[in-house]
Design brief:
The protein is of the alpha+beta class. It has a single domain, classed as PH-domain like (Roll), CATH 2.30.29.30. The protein is 37% helix and 32% strand. It is built from 3 helices and 10 strands, in the order E-E-H-H-E-E-E-E-E-E-E-H-E. It has helices spanning 20-39, 45-68, 131-141; strands at residues 4-6, 11-16, 70-74, 77-82, 85-90, 94-101, 112-118, 124-126, 128-129, 147-148. A hairpin with a 4-residue loop joins strand 1 (4-6) and strand 2 (11-16). Helix 1 (20-39) packs antiparallel against helix 2. The mean pLDDT is 80.
């Protein structure tokens, strides 16, 4: 099982599912953008430095999000860690969990996601690995009727 469990503190950590196709798309966009900057270097050299810094920061930010992101269930709270985004959602506040497939911007790198709706929180799209262990943990705390998987 890929979920890391710490029995002493009742913590389960879940990695974020990362689709190869989405990672490839991000890489191709980065390379394409960088190649445009390199081709236009002769026509506007004064723009090259700042744009290269901006593109480098964007690529670094995407890689950082890709590497350090995770979901944690500790006691009865769901923690979402996605780059600099940190959110804590009490599991009792969750109104609905449903399986979905979309490409909306969210805290995941996968098309196949769980849509989490909680009272007083925005809608979050999550893609934990392994999905079964994550949903089993949710089912232990929230009502089965709220889950549409």
């Amino acid at each position: 099982m890929n979920a890391l469990r710490c029995h002493r503190y009742n913590i389960m950590r879940f990695k974020i599912k990362k689709d190869v196709s989405l990672a490839t798309l991000l890489f191709v966009i980065s390379v394409f953008t960088l190649s445009i900057f390199l081709m236009n270097y002769q026509t506007a050299p004064w723009v090259y430095g700042p744009l290269l810094v901006v593109v480098g920061c964007m690529v670094g930010l995407i890689v950082w999000f890709y590497v350090v992101s995770e979901y944690i269930i500790k006691d009865d709270v769901l923690f979402i860690r996605f780059g600099f985004l940190r959110e804590a959602i009490p599991l009792k506040a969750i109104e609905k969990v449903q399986s979905t497939t979309n490409l909306k911007m969210s805290t995941t790198f996968s098309r196949h996601r769980l849509k989490i709706q909680a009272t007083g929180y925005p809608v979050y799209y999550l893609s934990p690995v392994p999905l079964d262990a994550f949903t089993d943990q949710l089912k232990k705390i929230i009502d089965h009727k709220k889950m549409e998987l």
